[in-house]
Amino acid sequence: MIHITKRKEMPLPQALAIRLLAIALSLVVCGVITAVMTGLNPLDVYGTMIKGAFGTQRKIWILLQEIAILLCVALALTPAFRMKFWNLGGEGQILVGSLASAACMICLGDKVPNALLILLMAVASVAAGAVWAGIPAIFKARWNTNETLFTLMMNYVATQLVAYFVIVWEVPKGSGNIGIINQSTEAGWFPQLFGYKYLLNIILVALLTVAMHVYLTYSKHGYEISVVGESASTARYVGIKVDRVIVRTLLLSGAVCGFAGLLLVGGTSHTLTTTIAGGRGFTAVMVAWLAKFNPAIMAASSFLLVFMGNGAGEISTAYGLNHSFGDILTGIILFFIIGCEFFISYKVHFAKKEGERVV
Amino acid sequence: MFDIVSFIPRAVAQSVPLLFGSTGEIITEKSGNLNLGIPGVMYVGAISGVIGSFLYERSFSDPSQINAFLGVLIPLACCLLGSLLMGLLYCFLTVTLRANQNVTGLAMTTFGVGFGNFFGGSLIKLTGAAVPSIALSATSNLFRRSLPLASGMGWFGKVFLSYGFLAYVAFVVAFAASYVLERTRVGLQLRAVGEDPATADAAGVNITRYKYLATCLGCMIAGLGGLYYVMDYANGVWSNDAFGDRGWLALALVIFTIWRPKVSAAASILFGGLYILYLYIPSGGNMAVKELYKMIPYVVTIVVLVFSSMRNMRENQPPESLGLPYFREDR
Predict the structure, then answer these.
(1) Would you say residue B1 has pLDDT above 80?
(2) How far B246 CA lies from chain A's nearest CA (Å)?
(3) What was the pLDDT predicted at A93?
(4) Which of A102, A116, A118, A307 lies 20 to 30 angstroms, CA to CA, from B300?
(5) How far is B276 from chain A (nearest CA, A)?
(6) CATH topology of domain B4-316
(7) Chain A, 193-252: which have a CB under 8 Å from a chain B CB?
(8) What ipTM is given for this predicted complex?
(9) Which residues of chain A does B26 touch, with a Cβ-Cβ cutoff of 8 Å?
């Protein structure tokens, strides 16, 4: 018979080894599947993927900036997840953040100095994201409304809100999109550091990563979040005001998502579309969870997912396949990593049964 | 003026994928599994049916010669098989390996939507077919065939009899699911598994078996929603991302109906109506306002979610152990 028991705690090197093994296995499976689809040998496939991610300097910058944005969203979700609050509304919080930034750029573009404009954009998008996450949090804290479903629905309300404003602001009328905002004046565009377009985004997210790590590990708030996450009753018993912690943490979580929206509009794309968040609100859930909510490891898991996405994009371009191929490969890798967690938390015993081994 | 006779059939056509999706998800959630992979499962169900019927139609030089029975059976079987495999994957990860359900579900949605769009976009290239797009009109005609007397019965025929057979299947499945959940022993045990697996386990209910069966069955039902969409609603034409956010709307419907499939039968038509209401509300050529109308189904769902949590009545709550893995030795 097979018997399963819970492990106490696996030493970190061993746990990492299991995860790396799972990633390696999944890459083999991905390679085989790609080879079957394209008729190439798997090694060439990996070569193409690496070329797609690191091929040119421009590709490396795009890779880094994608990692930065995804990491930023994952960092945003982390405090909520540590509290066992399933914030699946990252998508919507990014969208309203982007919307607020774009609104500032469009309405105030030529009326205020650039530095003030960027400051206003930052304040507006952070506030918008915080409000969008704060609403479900208040209901969770007060009436224990299911937050997974509430935040999920808020995504679509945000999408339609953005769709509304896209049509209001569309240029030219009837085109259905806004185009590049302030193309001629570049008002509200982030400044280029040392001539690199994405460098500021990357530095900001790097700082945020450190700040979030410090906040979660060394601050009183971070401690309260962990206690509420472990057991709400314990938290109440030791005098933590659980509902206040929930609302405060979600305001933070939404604010950082809104900040990601700011980076997307002000730093990267300078436009607003309903798909600007690009599923990052959901991908970030997996990034954060894969890293067990540890900011440093999150950088690695964002890298893995972005690398797979960009690499698979290169494969689809090179062999004329549909771009969704990347999603399939990402899905396969995720399944392997999700599955391998079992072998980290549980131990499987194979017991002998009446003389014959049953496996 | 508001043309109710043309509005209702369109609302019903919109409601069928939602009804399949929500019935499937209700059965799944009653076993305590919160399957956020339903949108992906519906894509996989749709594309599996498309692949099956694409290959079948291709084996004829003239697709209109296809055998009517096989023409329906092949896509149906492929769709059910594809969705079943997704269900098994979800169960293996969350029940056997006790992985986190939210993360597994989201990964399944990423995978499923990607799978659908990839094969939708590359099927022609992969099979080397000489057609410009996937248009399965022969198969679609079989799925869309309504009762011959419908056209002769005026408004009654239009409102009640003008649909393909899968639409009726959706309603039959919803009422059957409702009956099984509320009136049978199997339904009672399934609900027990979702409410309190430890108690059900102690009473001798096989938790793993119930979770597997309910989730796989739920996925198969949800997959049919995808098949209905592409074969009936979209006339057999696959276009990427056309299915849109209907999968998530089906999840919203689960909450809206407070986990009751028979309520879902009526509510899905309401949602279908809300989904296309913006086409009927006069907005004076103001396109922007129409985008705001599309928000209505989600806002309504949020309101229901909030009210049911405020009133806090025991029969209106989500299954108690929804989203939690069960490990017998956890105490």
Answers:
(1) no
(2) 11
(3) 92
(4) A102
(5) 14
(6) ABC transporter involved in vitamin B12 uptake, BtuC (1.10.3470)
(7) none
(8) 0.85
(9) none
